[in-house]
Amino acid sequence: MKGYNFSKFNPQAEGKTKFEQLLDIFMQLLTYTNGDVAEALSWMNQLDKEYDIANEEYGMGDFIEELKEKGYIKENPASGEIKISSKTEQGIRKRSLEEIFGKLKKTKQGEHRTFKPGQGDELNPETRPFQFGDMLEQIDFTTSIRNAQINHGIDDFMMNENDLAIREADYKSQTSTVLMIDISHSMILYGEDRITPAKKVAMALSELITTKYPKDTLDIVVFGNDAWPVEIKDLPYLEVGPYHTNTVAGLEMAMDILRRRKNPNKQIFMITDGKPTCLKIGKRYYKNSFGLDRRITSRCLNLAAQCKKLKIPITTFMIATDPYLQRFVQEFTEINNGKAFFASLDRLGAFIFRDFESGKRKTVY
């Protein structure tokens, strides 16, 4: 007896070919498998066996062949190992951006608009009287000459300070951001996958900055027992290790990166479960996973104060709900004069992008 298979209506899937539909699933799975093609395809075969995601006309073998033909995966002839290509890496970032923040168009300039007038890219239609300290290039000579004619007449033309008019420009700020991602073992404890949402946000944020804010800079630092920088292309392959949480090492590396950046606006975004458990003293690792160790937290708080002096705000996105950890993050935030969001995993991206975009409206000194 022939029956009917009902599924949830997805308007975006309408009009897509079978390859495009399977590609969407493949891209999602690659994020969970840390870029492991073989594991992602194995999962897809299991999904096809259980849910019939392919069909008789277009099977999983056809999909794999088309992935190769279109340059999404590449095979090593000698070893037979299959890896994703740079095309796929960018595709994952774009899909993460669309999933979290919607479609954004590329521009040729920084677009962090602020409400503070000053030297900038867009002229303000309003003018104001000259004040001591205004620069020569800010003078609107057409308006200034007209003021001089009105104030002194045409026959005896003269111009003084009171005639000068200043036309301001709306400043578009450039921002240097360091995104810190906790890859300690606690990010997958208790059966909760915290690293995959963090990776998705990092990939989406990198795609946003490189397309909409190309004058901005984004550096990504991961931290476990130690801290090290990763490139944007490495994000799909990030995975949690058997590490403790050396927040101090991550902050020190982020500060060192931002010291070398020329932008006046600098910030740190930190995704963590909020519990520093490790400190490197010389060549030795000092570790304590039981509660909050005062020796470790004191160093964290000192760095928060240093960042405040350097005018580097730290925004902490905490993905744990323990009250004692939240109190520590609140103290850390108050010392830095930064911000903290106690974000659920499904809202992490919205929190980060809302905060990043609000930088357009911050006063720039």
The total number of structural domains is: 3
Question: How would you spell out the order of helices and strands?
Answer: HHHEEHEEHEEHEEHEEEHEHEH
Strand content: 15-25%
**Helix run count:** 10
Low-confidence stretches: 103-123, 360-365
Overall SS class = alpha/beta
Spatially, the strands of the biggest sheet line up as: 8-7-6-9-12-13
CATH superfamily of the largest domain: von Willebrand factor, type A domain
| Percent range of helical residues | 25-40%
How many β strands by DSSP? 13
Distance between the termini: 73 Å
Mean pLDDT: 81
The CATH architecture of the largest domain is 3-Layer(aba) Sandwich
CATH class of the largest domain: Alpha Beta
Please compute the radius of gyration using only Cα atoms: 27 Å
Largest sheet, strands/sense/barrel: 6 strands, mixed
Broad shape = flat
CATH topology of the largest domain: Rossmann fold
Your description of this structure?
The longest helix is centred in the middle third of the chain and has 18 residues, at 195-212. 38% of the residues lie in helices and 20% in strands. It has 3 domains: 13-84, Arc Repressor Mutant, subunit A (Orthogonal Bundle); 124-169, no CATH class; 174-361, von Willebrand factor, type A domain (Rossmann fold). The protein has 365 residues and is of the alpha/beta class. Mean pLDDT is 81; it is low at 103-123 and 360-365. The strands form 4 sheets. The chain has a 6-stranded mixed sheet with strand order 8-7-6-9-12-13, sandwiched between helices. The protein is flat, with a radius of gyration of 27 Å.
